[in-house]
Design a protein that fits this description.
It is built from eight helices and 15 strands. By secondary structure, the chain is an alpha/beta fold. The chain has one domain: Spore Coat Polysaccharide Biosynthesis Protein SpsA, Chain A (Alpha-Beta Complex). The longest helix has 13 residues. It starts with a strand and ends in a 7-residue tail after the last helix.
């Protein structure tokens, strides 16, 4: 079964209001951790075998899944025997491997540390534990297979953090454009790798070392996604995503 590797080890310092007490992947959107939203997205497309690269406060993520059934269901427990009966029995058909990849490890080292858990599949997927999207994962995976490259990155058009001003030739403002979508593309964090990627990894950020090398060798494909995408980088992003969940749910495909 194709593995989905989720990078969950960063400290999330720009979201200190929440991450001082919990790892960023457990910060909640609509009452559920953003990690849960990401995993629901992948499982919607049939990818249900996850490897979580843990680091900062990783024991909290372990405990979340160890206690998942009792946290998400009503239950009756017989204390003397330790028997637990789940009543509404909300379950996910997920296989989850939690791997401690180091408190201060960078992304390349985290991937190297989970190599033994990838299994026999030639490809695996990688994403970050702080972003949601409505990307079609099956189309991304099929595109990667078609291109036959070592890696495929999803390119998204980010929204500007600032409003833009438009003016005429006389330097008179004619229009305010509130946080427009930019034309340039950035790495949206939905990635597919061939297993040969491990020969290119080191203990640094693979985004800054491995990706440029693959680009030189023309071994990096770009999958274009023009739909919804949003990362949770700051407290403002956290508030924005919760507002979207309460009103539109633009990434809820399941």
């Amino acid at each position: 079964m194709t593995k989905v590797v989720i990078l969950c080890g960063g400290m999330g310092t720009r979201l200190r209001e929440e991450t001082e007490y919990k790892p960023k992947p457990l910060v909640e959107i609509g009452g559920k951790p953003i990690l849960w939203h990401i995993m629901k997205h992948y499982s919607h497309y049939g990818f249900k075998d996850f490897i979580l690269c843990l680091g900062y406060k990783g024991e909290m993520i372990k405990n979340y899944f160890l206690n998942y059934q009792t946290q998400h269901n009503n239950f009756t427990i017989a204390l003397k025997k330790g028997n637990v009966i789940l009543h509404n029995n909300e379950e996910e058909d997920w296989n989850i491997t939690c791997v401690d990849t180091g408190q201060d490890s960078l992304t390349g080292e985290r991937l190297l540390r989970i190599q033994p858990f990838i299994g026999i599949d030639e490809e695996f997927m990688v994403t970050y534990g702080d972003g949601v999207s409505d990307i079609n994962i099956k189309e991304l995976f099929a595109f990667h297979k078609q291109k036959g490259k070592i890696g495929t990155i999803t390119g998204i058009k980010p929204g500007s953090k600032y409003g833009l001003l438009k003016m005429n030739e006389e330097n008179t403002i004619t229009e305010f454009v509130e946080k427009p979508i930019l034309n340039d593309r950035i790495n949206g964090g939905y990635i597919v790798f061939n297993k040969s990627i491990f020969k290119y990894l080191d203990n640094n950020m693979f985004e800054f070392t491995t990706f440029p090398e693959l680009a030189k060798q023309q071994q990096l494909a770009l999958f274009l996604h023009d739909g919804f995408w949003q990362c949770m980088d700051t407290y403002r992003d956290y508030l924005h995503l919760n507002k979207l969940w309460n009103t539109q749910k633009p990434w809820k495909l399941w």
